[in-house]
Design a protein that fits this description.
The chain has about 500 residues and is α+β, with helices and mostly antiparallel strands. The protein contains 14 helices and 18 strands. It is about 40% helix and about 20% strand. Helix 2 packs across helix 3, helix 2 crosses helix 6 and helix 3 runs antiparallel to helix 4. The two termini are about 40 Å apart.
Amino acid sequence: MTLHHNTCQRLLDFSGNLYAMKKHDIKASVQHLLAFIASDKKALSLLKKATDDDSRLSFIAYILPTVQKSSSYPKQELIKQDWLREISRECNIRKPTVPSCVFEACKMRKKKTNGHKLTKRRLSQSLGFTAHARKINAARFASVVETCVRRYSATDAYPPLKHWVYETEAIRKRWEEHLSSGNRHDPRNPYLPLMKVDPALLDHDIPIDDSRLFRDSDGEEVCNVFREFCKQTSTRHVNLKASFSDERYQMDDPGDLVQIGFSAGSRNAPKIHWVRNITRRNLPDQVVADLNYRSSSAFALFWNLCKDVLPKPIINDFNAFFEKDGILRMNPAEGAAKDFAKDEHHAVTGDYTIRIGDESFLFKNVELAPPCGVFGRNYARAMHFENQPHKYAIAWTVRRDHPPDAGGHFYIGTYKIRIQAAANTLVIWKPTDIHGTSLQDLDPNDENPAFIQTGLAIVTPKRLRKLWRAYKTKAITYDDVILALTANSNHED
């Protein structure tokens, strides 16, 4: 099990007085440890692997009972000691007295640690997190072809508002009955008509290998399409290991959409809290914390991939959103506090972890993502528009193994644009424009579909900012805010 990084930090925090224990007592404990490790295969194996926070924590948790048996110091003092450093020091200065198997394990650990550091440097380069890589990526995005688009009214938009769209008759046959008469989670939602897209009626059809920047007649950026967004292919395969069996968002839509980060709560019981979307009950708190940390890490990675290379109007839009209300970032450590809005100093930076195979790479003191977003899998939605507290939304299609004619394409009806779906594609659009995603060539009742299209998006409910402003600007109690918002939330987006 991978443990939440905050827990690792607490247990591995060596910033206290390292020599609260007397030096000769530390040395005596180390000698007991060396003998124990030499005689215990699991301890020896954990020592070899102790190269990152998770593996170091596993090693320390395993050896701590042995240290306690050989020492009269309280546990809190023993935890403060950097036992890995003490063991390594003993190996370096007293080779003859160290069991050969422990000495070899320390050598192997040092080699793996150095290799881990080198791999992380290369990973940072491939992700575009070095100065040279940022410059190259910025130039790559700045070279995208620009196209001027015509804006259509709601009555002339294509595909039109409040329609499910599809590209082939095979897709219609799969979905027509389900979307015309199937069960709905919310019976108040009307059945919407299905419509086959006529490509001849589109002004712009962007193929899977084409990037594009669209501007309106006033020169404002209205849509960006970046193919091959992230050059680090292994990261693209691991960062979306979210649990799609968790509670879904937009439950009447095909596919899965899981909300991540902070939520404004339900309309009947609004409150700011880290979203509680895990349907499996009785999970240990640490497991839930780890799932939340992994999800927020995916968004921290996504945001840091974006913020140094995207066009300035998009990043400036989000910076204005952050600065205007001082809204919090996607930090699960703040998720349980009901009165955290009173604090004027919410963390803008924090830590996140990328996991590739069996290795974990920790990135410290980096900018955290906006407060909320969604993970999507095989998700489709009828043509619609919405209001959000920032002008632009950002989505990254991480994986797609559908054939080209299997649907799942993104449409912006306001400009008669189709963006053909492809893996590793970034799309930026204005949520107030009419947009939607076409139905996919999948069985509505198949829980293990043949094709997978996954991604994540930075989107923010308007109600979240409304609730945050109520906290920040009104000298009223938490319960008063809840009552006020409940009374006025029926028409909020």
